[in-house]
Amino acid sequence: LTILTIFVALPIFVMITSSLKPLKDVTGQFRWIPSGLTIRPYIDIWKTVPLAHYFSNSLIVAGSATICSVIIAIFAAYAVSRYNFRGKRVFTVSVLSTQMFPG
What phi and psi, each to the nearest 5 degrees, are found at residue 8? Predict the structure, then answer.
């Protein structure tokens, strides 16, 4: 478990520390313990790339898709609960079985 934790956490640690290093430290020789950390790379990226616009586009698309999915699911749930149709039992069992077993 310890080896697995190190295997998973090490790339995340390197990624976070590399993102907080100055550019000369990132392009230079690799060190496990950085000489200094700064948020300047994040400030620079927010000034040069329109990330707020990209985030708002993602929020609009994700919100629209979620609303459409919920509306479709409401109609489907109503149909499954109120109407008798061929294969209703198989459909219900398949939906419930996906919720009963994890992963």
Answer: -85, -40
Number of domains in the chain: 2
What single letter denotes the amino acid at residue 35? S
Distance CA 15, CA 12 (A): 5
pLDDT digits (tens, 9 = 90+) for 11-67: 999 899 888 888 777 788 877 777 788 888 889 888 999 988 999 999 999 999 999
Q: Are 35 and 59 contained in the same domain?
A: no
Contact 25, 36 (CB under 8 A): yes
Please give the pLDDT value at position 27. 80
Tally of CB atoms within 10 A around 21? 20
